[in-house]
Amino acid sequence: MAAIELASDQAVSYGLTSITEPGVIASGTMTRRWADVHAYQVAVETGRVRPRMTLMPFHTALHELDGPEGWKTFDMGVRTGLGDDRLRLGPVKVISDGSLIGRSAAVHECYCGEPDNLGVLQLSPEELREQIVAFHRAGWAVATHAIGDRAIDHVLDSVAEAPRIAPRRVRHRIEHFAIATDDQVRRCAELGIVPVPQGVFISDFGDGILEAIGPERSAGTYRMRSLLDAGMTVPGSTDSPVSDANPFVSIHDLVNRRTASGQEFAPAERVGVAEAVRAYTDGSAYAVGREGDVGTLAGACSRTSWS
Fold it and tell me: E strand or H helix at 304, and its extent?
């Protein structure tokens, strides 16, 4: 409860009025699993958390039911969207590969200076497909962590398969969508997937990324301009606490795209200030299916109201 309150205070100090937390009910990580949602509910009731909260449970917490075959969800069919204006369940979180700065993201081409390193898949392509289809059947939106281009291919294939098996409209996401080819951008747009890149990673980790995969592949890493040009609605994200939650640093990086040492990082992916701000407002609301009631900035004279 104390940690939730501290995070809430920091978020409000940054002007963040809605938060998506992609790390609840995750056995063996940074949470207590069984008490997670209860703790957030009490925090809302007692005023200890002030931003609106969307919680992503880890896929390991979901299970098969005795009802429809091929479902994986919580008891009683609980799924994405349950809750109210203050606290609700978002997508289920799946991890498909490792990290880019740690050189464990699953890639098609080896890391610089490491001819045998193609990264790590946390789930086989078959396991990933089974999971995503099962969650899709149960009505969950799925947010899959996929950083390397090899992992992204497997996620795109799985999401493409899901509606063919269980036709229904669900807004799935790819968290990070880091090393992405032009073809992957096109497929992502065609499938209606929401890519979730992190602008702040450019200044925080850009120098290390350039060393890990070189300037040519880095030109297609943590894209923004090409995602918008493909017609996608893209949210703002910092992946806090991996990076600091300050949205203004991330907005700055999306516009300027320079590493901590001052090197240009995929400069063709620069966007304007208004586009970067829109990502943190309308884009982030869209990513959790709330574009109808939050995510706008409205100014009147010298006053600005946030929703």
Answer: strand 303-306
Given its phi and psi angles, is residue 33 left (phi above 0), alpha (psi -120 to 50 degrees) or beta? left
- Take residue 140 and report the two structure tokens written for it: 């969950």
Q: What is the number of residues in the chain?
A: 307
CA distances from 228 to 66, 197, 268 (A): 42, 12, 12
DSSP three-state, residue 198: coil
Beta strands in 50-198 (DSSP E): 52-57, 87-89, 92-95, 142-146, 173-176, 194-196
Given its phi and psi angles, is residue 106 left (phi above 0), alpha (psi -120 to 50 degrees) or beta? Answer: beta
Distance from C-alpha of 32 to C-alpha of 165, rounded to nearest angstrom: 35
Residue that the structure tokens 């056995």 belong to: 27
What whole-number distance in Å separates Cα of residue 185 and Cα of residue 181? 6
pTM of the model: 0.93
- Residue 205 dihedral angles phi and psi, to the nearest 5°: -130, 0
Interval 164-201: pLDDT, tens: 999 988 999 999 999 999 999 999 999 999 999 999 99
DSSP tag of 264: B
